[in-house]
Design brief:
Number of domains: 4
Family: Belongs to the NDK family.
Number of helices: 38
Largest sheet: 4 strands, antiparallel
CATH class of the largest domain: Alpha Beta
Strand order of the largest sheet: 2-3-1-4
EC number: 2.7.4.6
CATH architecture of the largest domain: 2-Layer Sandwich
Protein name: nucleoside-diphosphate kinase
Shape: globular
Oligomer: single chain
Structural class: alpha+beta
Distance between the termini: 88 Å
Keywords: Kinase, Nucleotide metabolism, Transferase
GO biological process, one term: nucleotide metabolic process
Length: about 750
């Protein structure tokens, strides 16, 4: 290339990079301080340069070897490195949203789990002639949706099962590539990297020969699914819970499914064939799973009663899991956590890879062709359209947003229950874990009450990644489309710190969302008004911001369903219909649901704080019937009465042990003779697969409530099982609290 043509190329590249700054305003400083200073030879090479990242799943399947066979001579630099969540967010930022304004982020929480599986390989390449080399590699990569991946692309050849396992990452354009190169190869000088000569054969052989710690032929999610099914089937079969003919029929069904996987017919044929076999499996299991409390007598084929309580519980759990796994689409509603907690109770381990494979399978499960994206409507038209009333906003969201949790018909049912009349008076907020950790939850609730809000419903919950994404996806999507700086990885850390408190609120004067937003204050601490919650109580950052509240009426309905069922919301609205200005739940009662402890609290105080949390979660649980509410209130009254006794100064350890022992006797008798201790069999028999897992979670928590009152069983109490049951039911327990209690139980009576 002549000096003149090289100069023209450099000028053209500079202009293109400058234009891209308008697309990526957050990279303006990087462009000014780094890119604009690149020498002309770098700019000459840039159109022929490409960045490719081989994530952990690609290394496991040996994709890097195929990539190096195709383009190994073009590599100029490489690095193996672990991609943390912050870096992964930057790499995939532009792909987190679709172009359609009606759509929302709904899968980043699960896609980002890929990078927890191991290290990645970063490759910087330069082609001798291809002036669109980055685009060439992106096209060769293939579509992330396996139903759209074209034959001949990497993703089609390696049969990626869903969007989580993408095999390769490539940059979208020159500016984002330069930024990603500067980060991934830090602290190497960017200019020196771009003009580096191609690597030698020794380096190429070294990287080509690399093998991941976990090697697989391809990511076969269905194979993992059926391995788990067989393990669960063995759990039931070992206890004699299935008649032999049924066991043989189910096993034959499993063999047929694995034969389909082994034939590797392609994504759509495989999914269709497995869906047919899953339907057949549901038919086979329907005859036995409504009766998971009984065991089969293999000699006569008749059912006999299980003799051991633990054996019966294990059989029920295994069969409930099998029943749910026969309906993968249902797990998108149930949540993978309930299944995982049930497997933990059975002692069935899942590796990190297996967990990610199964969770991705259920999240992206689909047998139909991908829908065409809706046409984007113009921003000017949207601005000129008057904002509909709050109830209509909810109906519109249900009708236009593909991931809204309710259909228009379901919203209309709530409208009949009273939502249409009070939509403008409802607000939703969360007291976030940082506020609970700082002991400010009561102060926040008091400010909300003084502002005229009344608490209609409350529930504690440990927020998980999918919950946090559901809460903040609107704001995250807006930031991405506006090209503002994001901090999603940090949001996950802050909201996942511990327990939170969700509150459905009512304000009689209407405009509830806006009122609560003003009361909350700006997310940036320096901008929070002095009288706001954040301004007066002192938030620390946009993440450690004390509380969250819904921005719009449509968001109120969507976000409150993370804490409450549709049935609970319906019942709350029905009660509200008869009270124009409800009194609401007392602040003291709501604050008690959190019952945080301090480092100075001894094991007895921690024990009763946990008991109160468990009782509140049971009382607020949708599966707790009205017949149990008086019992739980009586139980809570006794627990409250003990707290002053435990906090009395000067009481000796032995006197406190005696006082607690007497109270435990009373509690144990109360709970053992109550409906809380009754067999869950009738309710479980009539439950759907999704409901059965939730009922198992409820039952395990009810069992824990009884165990925490049974001092005779303290020394034998399996604290790991207790902690698993608490996690499943969103009852928070810190590591220090768990250690205190485990010591208390182990040495009880000594």
């Amino acid at each position: 290339m002549t000096r003149g043509s090289s100069h023209r190329t450099a000028e053209r590249v500079r202009a293109e990079l400058a234009d891209l700054v308008a697309v990526y305003p957050e990279l303006a400083t990087f462009h000014q301080t780094v890119v604009a200073r690149l020498p002309e030879p770098c700019l000459d090479f840039l159109p022929r340069t490409a960045l490719v990242v081989v994530p952990p799943d690609g290394l496991m399947q040996g994709v890097h070897r195929r990539l190096l066979d195709d383009h190994g001579e073009h590599v100029v630099a490489f690095r193996f490195r672990t991609l943390d969540q912050r870096l992964a967010e930057r790499l995939y930022l532009d792909g987190l949203v679709t172009q359609a304004p009606e759509r929302h982020i709904r899968s980043w929480w699960i896609k980002s789990k890929l990078f927890d599986l191991g290290e990645a390989l970063v490759l910087l390449m330069r082609h001798p002639t291809d002036a669109g080399f980055q685009a060439t590699l992106t096209a060769a990569k293939g579509a992330s949706d396996p139903r759209l991946a074209k034959t001949g692309t990497y993703r089609a050849e390696y049969r990626t099962p869903n969007k989580t396992f993408g095999l390769l990452h490539s940059s979208d354009d020159m500016l984002s590539m330069l930024y990603e190169v500067s980060v991934l190869f830090e602290p190497e000088d960017l200019a020196q990297l771009l003009i580096r000569p191609h690597w030698d054969s020794a380096h190429r052989a070294l990287v080509t020969g690399y093998e991941s710690g976990v090697s697989v032929r391809r990511i076969e999610s269905y194979r993992v699914l059926y391995r788990l099914k067989r393990r669960l089937l063995a759990e039931a079969a070992a206890a004699g819970a299935l008649p032999v003919p049924l066991l043989e029929a189910v096993e034959e069904n499993y063999r047929a499914a694995l034969d389909v996987v082994a034939d590797d017919p392609g994504h759509v044929p495989e999914t269709t064939a497995v869906a047919r076999l899953l339907s057949e499996e549901r038919r086979l299991l329907s005859g036995v799973l409504p009766y998971p409390g009984a065991l089969a007598d293999t000699g006569s084929g008749e059912l006999r009663a299980a003799v051991a309580g633990e054996e019966r519980a294990g059989v029920r759990t295994a069969l409930a899991c099998l029943r749910t796994l026969a309906e993968p689409a249902a797990l998108r509603t149930a949540g993978f956590e309930n299944l995982e907690f049930s497997l933990e109770a059975l002692g069935i381990p899942l590796s990190a890879l297996e967990r990610t494979m199964l969770e991705s399978l259920f999240f992206f499960y689909a047998t139909d062709p991908p829908p065409a994206p809706p046409a984007a409507s113009g921003g000017e038209d949207r601005r000129s359209t008057p904002m509909p009333d709050p109830y209509q906003q909810m109906l519109d969201a249900a009708g236009t947003l593909e991931d809204y949790p309710l259909s228009p018909a379901e919203v209309a049912e709530l409208g009949k229950a009273g939502l249409a009349a009070v939509a403008d008076q409802l607000a939703f907020m969360i007291v976030t874990p940082d506020a609970v950790h700082r002991g400010l939850h009561t102060d926040i609730l008091t400010k909300v009450h003084i502002a005229g809000f009344r608490i209609l419903a409350h529930r504690t919950r440990d927020l998980r990644d999918s919950d946090i994404e559901e809460l903040y996806k609107d704001g995250l999507r807006a930031k991405i489309l506006d090209h503002r700086r994001t901090h999603w990885y940090l949001t996950r850390k802050g909201l996942g710190l511990g327990t939170s408190l969700g509150l459905l609120l009512h304000h009689p004067d209407g405009d509830a969302c806006e009122r609560l937003l003003r009361l909350k204050g700006a997310s940036k601490p320096a901008d929070a008004a002095p009288g706001s919650v954040r301004g007066s109580l002192g938030s620390y950052s946009k993440i450690l911001a004390l509380m969250h509240s819904s921005d719009t009426p449509a968001a109120v309905l969507r976000e409150c369903l993370l804490y409450f069922t549709t049935g609970q919301v319906h019942d709350t609205l029905s009660l509200l219909a008869g009270h124009a200005e409800p009194q609401g739940t007392p602040i003291s009662f709501v604050a008690e649901a959190l019952s945080p402890t301090t480092p100075e609290d001894d094991p007895f105080a921690v024990l009763y704080a946990l008991k109160i949390r468990v009782s509140h979660v049971l009382a607020a649980h949708p599966l707790t019937g009205p017949e149990l509410q008086p019992l739980l209130e009586q139980h809570l009254s006794g627990l409250r009465a003990m707290r002053p006794v435990l906090s009395a100064n000067g009481a000796s350890w032995s006197s406190r042990t005696t006082a607690v022992g007497h109270e435990l006797e009373r509690e144990h008798k109360l709970l053992a003779e109550s409906a809380l201790a009754q067999d869950m069999q009738p309710a479980l028999s009539a439950a759907t697969p999704v409901e059965s897992l939730e009922r198992l979670v409820w039952h395990r928590l009810a069992v824990v409530a009884g165990q925490l009152a049974d001092q005779q069983g303290f020394p034998q109490l399996d604290m790991d099982q207790v902690k698993a049951a608490l996690r499943a039911a969103h009852v928070h327990l810190t590591p220090w609290e768990a250690l205190l209690l485990e010591n208390l139980f182990f040495f009880w009576g000594q």
